[in-house]
């Protein structure tokens, strides 16, 4: 067995050197500066890995013919003890080879191909990113221009044009933010209604305090003169009260008393203290009225302000609440920093049938997965969504440069809401897609999707908002309208979150999907616009590949025995240098013919047995393996 492995090792090394050498002498496509050498090496590696099955199969045949050129006297009859020992040895070697080939097929080749494609696409993506950044600047959308310029710099960090565009986009974004803040400063702060004082939503009782406990916390804060917290805890108590709750009157009274105290004239030691209090008060009012974004920026500025000598616990607490509110509606720009380097799936596409009979088609250019304490999060680059009516007529489409997908607990929705959204009872979590993003540190700009409507598909409310004429709502109208009107900033997808992750793999092709994902996805493929038959055939082919290659190895060992070297004194002959490559080429043709027959046979099995094809194929190839093993054991000298 040792001799077999040594022969195969030498043969494999020589082929790797040859493949790499061939690649280095071939021309390369248009690449980024300095990427040619790495590309040539990867291409040579791909050549080698694609030939690895042929290398191993031809190698095992030739190694067996050398190994068994002498010492075969113990196999004078069929099913001899000597052949049993040889079968055990060849089975161990074959299992090792099959294991390497499985890794090669499932991991090595896809990984190398992905790196090659990334290098080939880099120049085009760089050009597209720079062009899009310039267009966004011209359209007056500097934040998007900045994001695309950052993407260009991620692709080519040393590119002069990318860095220049990043500098221009950064300056434009800063100017736009300053302009927006200046405009906001001229607008009079919005007053909070009396209703908002008592029943404003957006206050969270995450720790699950009872109403009585909340009222007690309000009283404790009031006793110490902390009127912000006194109102805050009383407000939560009001929110938690049912319509007939006996403590509701007391909670409302405590909230009103605290609110009145907050509005009483106060004496301040300095103008800075007055300005600080007024800003804090304004941020708190915005928090009550659910304007989380403005409230977040106010408390953020107060937290980092030099106006206070020591940290203000009120500001820290309200900033945390405002941030949670913001994160329920938006995601931050910096969450997608460096996404181009960390994207693990590309070109994702699928379709969903909605509960109202419409169909939505999705295309995602790239995705990045992040695991956090809050569960799984996925960031999307260049999300395109198209919605069609029951009769297949286009209704609307939108493009979002970036989006964030959160794993949303399905139990958070009422039974009514689940029915309306088409969420099945058994789904534990669903994808919640956020389409708008904001800056974590600087107020002023929100990045949102761009919608395209067809007049025939626009609801009356949107028609009114956009000022379209009713005459346009005609079946023959083909006019598409691009608009900055945003009918929604987030969406719930009617599918299990676990399927959303698997679809990303399915879009790259069933051949590229991890096998354990593929096995579970076959039954669901048709629901997302994929062919169940194609996925079933590929599942059978990939699952049976180890057994198929094991059969091939055993049959090659049979060939090695039948054509073992007759000259028992010859350890090496120069004629082998010609014979081995020729035999390798012959095995290349034979193995590819076997692959073709293997695929056709699997199609037949899928066609006959349907969803039971995998079990049927397992039985069939196990029988073939048993026959191949008997064939080997029946060899004699």
What does this structure look like?
By secondary structure, this protein is α+β, with helices and mostly antiparallel strands. Among the domains are: about 195-330, no CATH class; about 340-450 and about 485-510, no CATH class. It is built from 20 helices and eleven strands. The chain has helices spanning about 1-25, 35-65, 80-140, 140-155, 160-185, 195-200, 210-225, 225-240, 250-265, 270-290, 290-305, 315-325, 340, 415-420, 460-465, 495-505, 515-520, 530-560, 575-610, 615-635, and strands at about 330, 345-355, 360-370, 375-390, 395-410, 430-435, 435-440, 445, 450-455, 480-485, 490. Strands 2, 3, 4, 5, 6, 9, 10 and 11 form an eight-stranded antiparallel beta sheet that branches. The chain has a three-stranded mixed beta sheet with strand order 1-7-8, with no helix packed on it. Strand 2 and strand 3 (about 360-370) form a beta hairpin.
User: What are the low-pLDDT stretches, counting only 5+ consecutive residues below 50?
Assistant: 186-203, 467-478
Radius of gyration: 34 Å
Shape: elongated
Main sheet attributes: strand count, strand direction, barrel closure: 8 strands, antiparallel
Structural class: alpha+beta
Mean pLDDT equals 80
Range of strand content: 5-15%
- Overall helicity: 55-70%
Q: Looking at the chains present, what oligomeric state does this protein adopt?
A: single chain
Number of strands: 11
Put simply, the count of helices is 20
Distance between the termini: 19 Å
Transmembrane segments: 5-27, 47-68, 89-109, 543-563, 575-598, 604-633
Keywords: Membrane, Transmembrane, Transmembrane helix
């Amino acid at each position: 067995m040792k001799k077999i492995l040594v022969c195969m090792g030498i043969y494999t090394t020589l082929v790797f050197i040859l493949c790499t050498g061939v690649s280095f002498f071939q021309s390369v496509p248009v690449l980024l500066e300095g990427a040619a050498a790495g590309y040539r090496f990867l291409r040579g590696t791909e050549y080698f890995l694609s030939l690895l099955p042929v290398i191993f199969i031809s190698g095992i045949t030739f190694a067996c013919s050398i190994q068994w050129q002498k010492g075969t006297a113990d196999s004078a009859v069929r099913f001899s003890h000597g052949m049993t020992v040889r079968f055990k040895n060849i089975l161990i070697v074959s299992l090792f080879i099959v294991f390497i080939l499985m890794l090669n097929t499932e991991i090595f080749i896809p990984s190398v191909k992905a790196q090659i494609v990334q290098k080939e696409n880099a120049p085009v993506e760089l050009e597209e990113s720079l062009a899009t950044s310039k267009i966004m600047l011209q359209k007056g959308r500097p934040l998007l221009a900045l994001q695309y310029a950052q993407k260009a710099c991620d692709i080519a960090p040393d590119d002069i044009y990318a860095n220049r565009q990043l500098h221009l986009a950064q300056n434009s974004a800063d100017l736009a933010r300053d302009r927006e803040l200046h405009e906001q400063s001229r607008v009079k702060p919005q007053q909070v209604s009396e209703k908002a004082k008592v029943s404003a939503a957006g206050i969270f009782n995450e720790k699950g305090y009872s109403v009585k406990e909340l009222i007690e916390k309000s009283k404790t804060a009031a006793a110490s003169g902390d009127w912000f917290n006194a109102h805050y805890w009383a407000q939560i108590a009001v929110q938690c009260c049912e319509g007939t709750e006996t403590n509701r009157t007391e909670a409302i009274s405590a909230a009103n008393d605290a609110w009145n105290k907050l509005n009483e004239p106060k004496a301040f030691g300095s103008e800075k203290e007055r300005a600080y209090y007024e800003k804090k008060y304004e941020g708190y009012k915005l928090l009550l009225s659910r304007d989380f974004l403005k409230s977040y920026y106010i408390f953020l500025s107060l937290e980092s302000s030099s106006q206070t000598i020591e940290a203000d616990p009120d500001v820290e607490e309200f900033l945390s609440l405002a941030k949670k509110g913001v994160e329920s509606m938006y995601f931050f720009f910096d969450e997608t920093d460096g996404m181009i380097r960390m994207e693990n799936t590309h070109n994702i596409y699928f379709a969903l049938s909605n509960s109202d009979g419409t169909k939505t088609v999705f295309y995602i250019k790239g995705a990045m997965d992040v695991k956090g304490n809050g569960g799984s999060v996925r960031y999307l680059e260049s999300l395109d969504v198209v919605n069609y009516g029951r009769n297949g007529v286009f209704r609307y489409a939108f493009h979002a440069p970036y989006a964030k997908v959160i794993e949303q607990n399905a139990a958070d929705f009422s039974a009514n809401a689940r029915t309306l959204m088409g969420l099945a009872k058994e789904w534990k979590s669903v994808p919640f897609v956020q389409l708008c993003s904001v800056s974590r540190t600087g107020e002023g700009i929100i990045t949102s999707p761009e919608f395209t409507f067809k007049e025939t598909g626009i609801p009356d409310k949107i028609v009114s908002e956009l000022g379209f004429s009713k005459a346009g709502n005609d079946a023959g109208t083909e006019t598409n309208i691009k608009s900055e009107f945003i009918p929604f900033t987030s969406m719930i997808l009617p599918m299990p979150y676990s399927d959303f992750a698997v679809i990303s793999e399915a879009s790259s092709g069933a051949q590229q999907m991890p096998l354990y994902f593929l096995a579970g996805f076959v039954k669901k493929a048709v629901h997302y616009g994929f062919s169940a038959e194609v996925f079933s055939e590929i599942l059978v082919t990939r699952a049976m590949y180890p057994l198929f290659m094991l059969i091939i190895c055993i049959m090659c060992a049979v060939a090695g025995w039948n054509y073992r070297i007759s000259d028992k004194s010859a350890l090496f002959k120069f004629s082998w240098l010609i014979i081995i490559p020729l035999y390798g080429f012959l095995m290349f043709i034979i193995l590819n013919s076997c692959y073709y027959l293997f695929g056709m046979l699997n199609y037949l099995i899928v066609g006959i047995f349907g969803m039971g094809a995998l079990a049927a194929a397992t039985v069939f190839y196990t029988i073939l393996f048993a026959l191949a093993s008997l064939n080997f054991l029946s060899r004699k000298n």
